[in-house]
Amino acid sequence: LDKLAAEFRRVRFPHCKVPLFSAHQMGTCRMGSDPRSSVVQPSCESWELSGLYVIDASTFPTSSGTNPMITTYGIAHMAAQGIKRKMTPSATPS
Q1: I need a labelling partner for 68 at 20 to 30 A (CA). Which of 7, 33, 62, 89 fits?
Q2: Which of 11, 12, 14, 24 is an active site residue?
Q3: pLDDT (tens digit, 9 = 90+) per residue, 54-91?
């Protein structure tokens, strides 16, 4: 860490004056009903590898142009409920 700080000082990296930003990657693992045009099923499970789930904004069909947080939470909740249903043993008749 000391070496990194020394390098910042050497190149005159401005202290507390660097703009920060982030990018939301959306649409890189598109969700869809056709494996020819999407990476994951509507359940967020991969078409190619059973049990592999992609649960983030990359499942969007394209960039939303706005912060994807709430929609991503919704997708995560939907996928978690589906996984929970798959993992819950069916009730057996007595």
Answers
A1: 33
A2: 24
A3: 999 999 988 888 889 999 999 999 999 999 999 998 75
Q: CA 17, CA 19: separation in Å to the nearest integer? A: 6
Q: Write down the pLDDT at residue 93.
A: 62
DSSP state of 37: T
Q: What is the largest CA-CA distance in the chain?
A: 76
* Catalytic-residue membership of 24: yes
Instruction: Please report, as a single letter, which amino acid is at residue 8.
Output: F
58 φ/ψ angles, rounded to the nearest 5 degrees: -70, -15
Please check the confidence at residue 94 and state whether its pLDDT lies above 80: no
Which residue type is seen at 34?
D
What's the token pair of residue 55?
A: 């649960």
Residue 61 in contact with residue 26, Cβ under 8 Å?
Answer: no
